[in-house]
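Researcher: Quick one. six chains, 750 residues in total.
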Amino acid sequence: MPAGRRAAALALLERLEAGAPDRVDANLTDFDSDATEIILGFAFADVVSRPGIDLKTREMLTVAMLASMGTAPGQLDFHMRAAMNTGVSRQEIVEIVYQVAVYAGVPAAMNAMTSAKKAFAEAPE
Amino acid sequence: MPAGRRAAALALLERLEAGAPDRVDANLTDFDSDATEIILGFAFADVVSRPGIDLKTREMLTVAMLASMGTAPGQLDFHMRAAMNTGVSRQEIVEIVYQVAVYAGVPAAMNAMTSAKKAFAEAPE
Amino acid sequence: MPAGRRAAALALLERLEAGAPDRVDANLTDFDSDATEIILGFAFADVVSRPGIDLKTREMLTVAMLASMGTAPGQLDFHMRAAMNTGVSRQEIVEIVYQVAVYAGVPAAMNAMTSAKKAFAEAPE
Amino acid sequence: MPAGRRAAALALLERLEAGAPDRVDANLTDFDSDATEIILGFAFADVVSRPGIDLKTREMLTVAMLASMGTAPGQLDFHMRAAMNTGVSRQEIVEIVYQVAVYAGVPAAMNAMTSAKKAFAEAPE
Amino acid sequence: MPAGRRAAALALLERLEAGAPDRVDANLTDFDSDATEIILGFAFADVVSRPGIDLKTREMLTVAMLASMGTAPGQLDFHMRAAMNTGVSRQEIVEIVYQVAVYAGVPAAMNAMTSAKKAFAEAPE
Amino acid sequence: MPAGRRAAALALLERLEAGAPDRVDANLTDFDSDATEIILGFAFADVVSRPGIDLKTREMLTVAMLASMGTAPGQLDFHMRAAMNTGVSRQEIVEIVYQVAVYAGVPAAMNAMTSAKKAFAEAPE
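Model:
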């Protein structure tokens, strides 16, 4: 059962960025042998892989939350790429950045813009 | 032209909560005669009424941002209702609350849950 | 197995505040039937009931985190009481409040002081 | 020497709001006998009473900081009044609220507006 | 009329840092053709260029807000320089950093100090 | 008496990281001649060196606060090392990181994990 939770978490992560599970799992396990189960099991198996909201919309929500909190730039970079990998268009990311300016202020939006431009540059046209 | 921006902002606000424009406009104008133009003009005319993301999805984003920042409980209450008014379902709000727990922590999700339950109680079945 | 996780979470909650499990479980289940499992299962079964740090010290950490973030005053009130219920002394709470002033600023400490005084007033001498 | 620090802190507080020192000192001392010295000594004797920036401008800075962080509404209410008591005009407060919208977002500005309106209502014309 | 708003925004930006408008405008336009209008139009034309508070005091407020929120270090670096460009003295910046320690905590002040020292090093004596 | 406060602050800092006082004092004094007294005097002489909570537990609290606020990554790196220097074990740091995930969200915990791994790598086995 825990094995199923761990597998479900890594399967979701693969959808966010192809090849990420091995890297992220190794990074977490190197910290503590329970980390993948506890952290990713909660985030991706218990919550993000639930039906009810499609994965593309969930990534839009995640990008908006990370950009408005402004405290995890590395995670924002990852989810900008994940958003594009799950079908969020460049124009939709532009709109999210403007909406961040309204609800979290212009500096938060400027940081999100920088992150978005990195994801745009790495994505195939 | 400014008149158009002001009108566009209030029209968007009416879609978020029927009857809100008069109340909000009076509240802002009582503070300063330029407040509706500057604050709502930016938020609702310049940004939220743009095409590119539908209003329902925008309200999902707004709820997620306000819940994860955790600094504007009154605005969160308003946008929980506005989310339902623009077509967000109870189950979708439940999913957003769980996603807030992942990205902003359990206390932020508990606050969002309290706000959501107030909106559920006020909404027609 | 999920039943065990739910039971473990509620058992931990009982240690934080006698009688809280029924009230909190009802509040969460009224929101969504999965909420106790997802939210409390993660918080209390997966994490806070782990050995490695005793519960008293964990409550000191929780009070410090909630006070420094400053975004969940209701949860801070609960954990001030829970801290005292798990053996944190009034003097230790005073020290945490001063340390919050250093790391999160005087206003965060003033809010924590207000919350602490409510817990002091409710606690038996 | 500590007595001087405590006295300097309370003298500054009297300038922020006439009559506040007794109330605030009692509130702090009821929490811990060292609280006035540690908290107010640092805030008001060590820092805010320094020359280099006049008190009116310092209160403008404090209002802007508290409004943009958004985590201490009670302190924001106090410093809105203190700002007016030290010479900040209504129009200057209006300008600060707009600037908060730019740097911390519209919800932070709306909260600041509510706080400002309370201070305006209590102040003599 | 939009052209006037855009021009007003860039004129204000030139006062903050000579030569910045071309660089910032290119950066924003590369993201989206509306970005300069929406983001800078709001920030600099609608708000910061308003009379009622002089530009030097506005930059003091901006530095205090960015330092206390702590989520936009790049923008803080920019506005430390802009503060000096609009007449804020080194001693006034020192005072702001101390006041940040009071209202947002010592780590926020230490980050602001690092940013201030970079601006001091780049400024002509 | 001020000399005593300064000395007490630097003595506490030496316990957090051997050799840090000279470096930190020089960094602060280069900014302003009063900075060590005002900033470190408050943080380390007035608060952290108080009895009532042992230094090891205080560093656990500091790590938890900095990780949950997420706005001072450099200070978090320092206090991860200081925690280990004052007797916090690797397993205890692992537990704090998991508890940060509960109260401040997974991204805050991931940032804390990165910081912890740097401290682990630098510490003698």
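Chain E touches chain F at residues 69-71, 94, 97-98, 101, 106-111, 113-114, 116-117 (CB under 8 Å).
Researcher: Thanks, that's what I needed.
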